[in-house]
Every structure is written in structure tokens, then in C-alpha cells.
## 1
Amino acid sequence: MTYRSHFIAASDGLKLHVREYGDPNSSRVPVLCLAGLTRNALDFVPLAEALSARGHRVIAPDYRGRGLSDRDPDPARYDIPVELDDVFTVCTALDVGSAAIVGTSRGGLLAMAIGAAKPEFLRGVVLNDVGPILEVEGLRRIAAYVGKIKPPRDWDEAIATLKTIQGEAFPALDETDWRALAEGSFVEKDGGLVSSYDLALMDGLAKLDLSQPLPPLWVYFDAIGHVPVLALRGENSPLLSQETFEAMAERHPQLQSLLIRGQGHVPLLRDALSIDAIICFIATLD
């Protein structure tokens, strides 16, 4: 895989890691890939390679506390407003004035926040298994394992652990997919494997009252109403309901919908259907 790593200082000095693919001077629309809560730039490797092969510049940051970015000494700063500022800092440093966004889960929330804060930045948005209503059952499932997985001894055990947690929701994955999921979840350290994200991320989830539905975010969804949107939903997703998925299409006149069979929260964006759909969608934005 061909990419360049950058380390960029956030506004508070914390070091952020970013992967960049493709020609920085390309005339095609650049693509900003924003990962899920505990995930990082590795989730976008197949998609980034496919997009850059078609002439797009692709930027995939690791949020603070994830991947190769620094851990934040204050866990309270693992928060959407701080991460939004980090994204803008990265884009300013890399001279990205506007882009299409591929936002997976939390990354989709950030895309909607960008629409509210800086609508002119957006060229189009791919929402990967996220919308304006987050089902509490899905959040409970996430909270049940974030920061609570026992460090596996090796990659085989890591894969087995992930299959135990998510196998029922992801019958479509093959062994290569499970290995990729594991490699984005753990890193080698001191002869074993440790989480690729700061375990303090669970602090934010612990503060949520998951006994009640969360407030809807339609006002933020409406903030991306001025650009085309491709919305993906995992067939077995507990976070984005089919009802909300359909309501999004009814509300947004430029929204295309795609159901990803055999996957839950979140679709991995490694299958040909997802990648081809995103490539075709991004091509319409040039």
C-alpha cells in the first residue's frame, strides 16, 4: 500500500497521526475518511487505495487517543467538539479546503458537525451506519465491550475474541476481513497485543444515560442537506434502525441508500459492493 504518514500538532499541542494517499495536487475531489469511536485510519485501507488509484487524494486521520496519535492525558477531551477542531487542524495543515467525507459511525457524526460549523467545506458525505437517531440498544452493545476486552495473547486469539463479540452480526466476513478488523483493534507491544485505542474512551460512554433514548440529531442531519449523501446501513445494525434509515431518505432530497447484507455495526467498507458504491458516488462530486 502506498501512503504517506504525517504527524500534526493539534491546537493543544497533542500529536495527531494522519495517512495520506494519492496526489496532493490532484484536481479531483479530495476525500476525508473519519473512523468510528475506537477505530483508526487502518479501517479505510482498501477504500483509500481504490480511490487514490482513480486520482483522488485521500486523508485518513487517527483521532487523538487512537492508532498512532498521542493519548490525551485528559479523557474528557475525547469529545466531538475537540475532535472536530482536530479535523480542521489536520485539514488546514494539509491544505484541504473542501472535501467529500466518508464518515463511519462517530465519523458520520463529525461529518454532520462539520456541516453545521463549516458547510462550505463539504462536497458530499458518505454516512456509514450512522444517522440522526442512535438506538440505545446499539450504544449498550458498544459500551459492553469498549475498554473491557482482555488483551489477547496473539492474533489468533484476537480474531477469536472479535468473532465471539461480533460474529453473529457479521456472517458475511471471511478470514481476511476478521484479520483486518483485528489489526485495527490491537497493536503489538512487549511481546503481546494491546488495544489500539486509549481505554479511557470508555469514560465518555459511562457518562451516557442509556436507560432512555438519546435526543435526536435531525438538526445536524439537516446541516448536510445542501450536499449529496450516500447512506450505508449494515443489515444487522443495532445502532441505525431501518426506520431511521428510511426517514433519512425521505427527508434528504439528494440521498442515496445502500443496505450492506451480512454485516452489522459497522460495515467494514472492504467488500466490492461498498467500495464500488462509494467510488461511483464520489465520482459524481467532481
Note: The longest helix spans residues 80-93.
## 2
Amino acid sequence: MAGVIEKISIQKQNTQSTLLIPLYGRAIAGKRFPDILRDVEAERIIENIDYDFSKISSIYGSEYTSLSCLVRAMSVDKRVNDFIELYPNTRVINLGCGLDDTFSRIDNGHILNYNIDLPEVIEFRQMFLEPSERSYDIGKSMLDFSWLDLIEERQNAPVFVIAAGLFYFFKENEIKVLINKLIENFPLGEVFFDAFSYKGMKIANKMVKRTGNIEAVMKFWVNNAKDLRSWSPAISEVSILPYFGKLYKDKRLKLKTRFLMWGGDFLKRTKFVSVKWGTHTKE
């Protein structure tokens, strides 16, 4: 990974500062709960940035919110690892990658990994995370489908698409078009993303505005799996999975944290969504 001699200074309330929210959550929660996931790259990047994290910490530094970031990374790791165990030559596409380095944790020595984000984000990312063998950075919007032409042998390889913390900010029809483009270009695959219910999205938007970032308004939510199943006749399965699972039973956590986790899952305000197409090997 890229070595940083001097800390890199960034300004508040721009694209770069927005990228720091999930990074900060993973770093601080991973130190406290390494048995869930230890994101050493997130910790390293935080240490090499000259930035006042007090505003982010006041909103996203709580046990619940930071663990939400860590659980998302853990769940993505597990899901993609299950997929590449069945399909070792998978193409992994990390949409809206930001400062995420999932590849370093899931690399099986065979997969090809593509990190996709806006050009300015990729430029910032490469200050801390250099592309490596079989892992490539592409500076394009996810809706600029020319990035599909850069995926090697896409017509013959399965694909696993990570969209962590991303789809919230797009319109439903934009995500529908994206998934249909993926279906056109890969014989089988899975898109895995996190989503709020409509009520959960409203609550999350209030939290984001409290950080001063009034531009990051969430637009997309998922209440029912059958709504997504109708997007294409090629979709074979849509699954909605609880976000926290049984983590609310962990007595190391504060009572408030456990209650929020239980409530989020019970009321289905937070969730993971899996969309599959093609004929999949039985798991």
C-alpha cells in the first residue's frame, strides 16, 4: 500500500470528508471489536489524515453507529467469500468503493477486483491505497456504463457486485437500469447492498444533515423484495437479510446499542439485500 510520510490535510464538507464517515466508523469499532472485523487499512488511513474528526465523532462515533459501519464490512466479506468459494474466478466489482479495501481481505489468489468511483474519489483513494495485482481502480460514475468494457472476459465469468452504502443516494430507476446492464454483461451474478426502509431512510437523512452535509440526501429504500424481483425476468432470487442478526445478544455492548440493533432488524428499518441472476450452484 502507498506509504505516507506526511499527513494529508483535507477540508471539511467536500467529497473527501464524506468518504471519512464509514472509514472512521470501521476504524474505531474494529479496534474495540476485532473479533467482528479488524480493518487495519481503515486505521492506517485515519492515522495519516490531518483532519478534525470531532464533528464525525459526535454523530458517528457512538458504539451503535460505528458498529453499523463495521458490520456492513463484515457482512460483505462473508457474502463475497461464500460466492468466490463456489466461483473462484469471480470478477468482484466494488461500486462506490471510496476508501474501502475489501479486496485485501477476500483475495483468493484468482479473482479480479475492480474498484469503481468518481475520478476525484479514485484520485484521493490512490493517496492511500494503490492498485495491486488483480485489483484495478476505475474513475467513472457507476452510471457511465463504459466501465463494463474494462472488465476482462465478462461474458464468461461470474460477477459479485458490492454496493455498500451506495444505492441510498440514487433513484430507483437508476439502480434498476444498472442491474439490468449487469445482467446483460455477465452470465450469472449477485449484487449485494445495504438499504433502509422508507422510515429508516428518513431517520438517516436527519442524522446526515446534523453533520452539516446537506448534499448527501438519500433517495432509495427497500420495503419489499418482490418490488425488486419485478425489475427483470432474468432475476432468479431476491433475498432480504437482517442487518445485525444476533449481535444484539452480545452482552459486551451497551443496552442502548443492543436495543437499537434489535429494533432495526425487528422493524426491518435496516437490512441487506441480495439480487441474483443466472443458474447458481447450490450452496
Note: Residues 31 and 186 are 38 Å apart (CA to CA).
